[in-house]
Specification:
The structure holds 2 protein chains of 2 kinds. Chain A is an alpha+beta fold. The radius of gyration of chain A is 24 Å and the shape is elongated. About 35% of the residues of chain A have low confidence. By secondary structure, chain B is α+β, with helices and mostly antiparallel strands. Classes of the chains: A alpha+beta, B alpha+beta.
């Protein structure tokens, strides 16, 4: 037993109600003392049932012990308590990845990145998934392995062939407790190494990808073994002792690259194509909540466009995620009505969102038309800026 | 209250094109009652719906409007409709793109009435 574990054990004994159990449980887990880690984690969850990190610790331990179903449950518990918990999204992404459900894995990585854009591991893993999902095209290549290291969420991929579109996503359990997961296309075996590195052969077939894109990746994901629980991993995965994670090759994609905009009027007809050149009640903003154009005046007369854009910054992401979880495809609009009027939020390209505020008495349909038209113009305006 | 809400949710799902309905706690995004089709991920949907409503409820007053009474998320292959029921709850319906939105909206308001006990 390491000195660190001794010290943490002492800290927990001195203050059983404290949060030192989080570090202790994790330290035990990392040293492979999984039974002890499990006892610490379950006891922590009992003491702190509303603490997301306690459930996250339990999920990691369960995953390490080879019970992805229990890990899945625990990570869902985390999201019930904190829907933005990055660790839980990374964990769920890993489980979905293991199960061959790359689309849902991507959803969770997106959620993790939305709240921690600096997470390079998640960025690289997302690049890999983009390839697997056919979002990136390139030359054909052969399937290889994707090692995923639990803690240092690193996914390393060699050359990979993306699965054929139809086989890309295997309907795994929704975000519901994983029933024995249906195997993903051509599921490779799975095994877990002592050093917790997991190597997964990727499915072969279909379109190929550029090698450079595949050379590396990191994914935070973390699995291992359970306790007194149910069925084993749904994973179509093979975990082996393969350890070393290869040096990341591909650079992570710029998360939210700043938008380049054309010169000119950002507040009138040029941006929104409005008949009278007015952009009153129309605000274009980026994913970080920064206003790109338009104006919005409160009743007192002051321009509140910046504030409202900031407050609505996450709405587009949430709308996209909700639509994705529901299997509804891309989101098209979000409308909200109140007694005094309506707001309409629509995507304007990949990285911008347009807000239209209807005046009192203005029918929703009319606001929708205005918003759609303005978004089309804004999209062109932004494209012109990017092409300039 | 929950029984009445559950009945109302069941009624809501009988509208053609409605795939499921949820009663969600606005504060923490947890599912309070549900009548939902198998395969619909109730928990994350509830959490996201609550979060979206909270954002809108914060932003709209700054734009000179009161908090939303009805919210509609439209996507390629369907939509999510929601209406707050009092300060603490939110009624959510998931529907196909061809659903009669007006009818769903009326049923949603019925659920709201059942929940707030009017």
């Amino acid at each position: 037993m390491s000195e660190r574990i001794r010290r943490l054990t002492h800290a927990v004994a001195e203050e059983p109600e404290g949060l030192a159990f989080l570090d202790l449980g994790d330290a035990l887990r990392r040293e492979g003392l999984l039974d002890a880690a499990w006892r610490v984690a379950t006891s922590g969850v009992k003491r702190h049932p509303a603490l997301p990190d306690a459930h996250d610790l339990l999920a990691r331990v369960q995953s390490d012990r080879g019970h992805p179903d229990l890990a899945f449950e625990s990570w869902l518990n985390v999201l019930d308590l904190d829907m933005h918990h990055v660790g839980a999204h990374r964990g769920l992404a890993f489980l979905y990845y293991q199960a061959g459900d790359f689309a849902r894995a991507a959803d969770h990585l997106d959620a993790a990145l939305a709240h921690d854009p600096s997470d390079e591991g998640a960025q690289l893993a997302r690049v890999r998934l983009r390839v697997l999902l056919g979002e990136v095209t390139g030359e054909s290549r052969t399937a290889e392995h994707v090692p995923i290291r639990p803690d240092a969420p690193t996914v390393e991929m060699g050359a990979v062939a993306t699965p054929a579109p139809a086989a890309t996503v295997t309907p795994v359990a929704e975000l519901a407790p994983p029933a024995p997961t249906p195997p993903a296309p051509e599921p490779p075996a799975a095994a877990l190494a002592d050093d917790h590195t997991i190597e997964m052969p990727l499915p072969t077939a279909g379109d190929a990808v550029d090698a450079a894109e595949l050379v590396t990746s990191v994914a935070p994901l973390v699995p291992r073994e359970p306790i007194d629980a149910p069925p084993p991993p749904p994973a179509p995965v093979v975990v082996t002792e393969a350890a070393a994670v290869a040096p990341p090759a591909a650079a992570p994609p710029a998360a939210e690259a700043s938008l380049s905009m054309p010169a000119g009027d950002a507040n009138g007809a040029q941006l929104f194509g409005t008949v009278d050149g007015s952009a009153e009640g129309l605000v274009l903003f980026d994913a970080n909540g920064l206003r790109l154009g338009g104006t919005l005046h409160a009743r007192a007369g002051e321009d509140v466009g910046d504030e409202v854009a900031a407050l609505l910054a996450g709405v587009a992401r949430e709308a996209a995620r909700t639509a994705s979880l529901l299997g509804l495809g891309a989101w098209q609009a979000l409308a909200a009505e109140s007694a005094e009027g309506t707001i309409f939020v629509v995507p304007a390209g990949e990285r911008a969102t347009l807000l239209a505020v209807g005046q009192p008495g203005q029918p929703l349909g009319r606001v929708a038309i205005t918003a759609d038209r303005a978004a089309r113009h804004a999209r062109r305006w932004l494209e012109a800026g990017e092409g300039a | 209250m929950i029984d009445a809400a559950q009945d109302a949710l069941d009624r809501l799902t009988r509208v053609r094109g409605v795939r499921g309905a949820l009663l969600v706690s606005t504060e923490d995004g947890l599912v309070v009652a549900e009548a939902i089709m198998e395969g619909v991920a109730a928990k994350p949907i509830a959490a996201l719906a609550a979060s979206t409503l909270t954002r809108l409820a914060r932003a709209m007053p700054r734009a000179g409007l009161r908090a939303p009474q009805f919210v509609q998320l439209r996507a390629e292959r369907g939509m999510m409709l929601a209406a707050p029921a009092g300060d603490d709850l939110l009624v959510v319906a998931i529907a196909d793109p061809t659903v009669n939105v007006g009818l769903v909206r009326l049923e949603l308001l019925d659920v709201v009435a059942a929940v707030v006990g009017r």
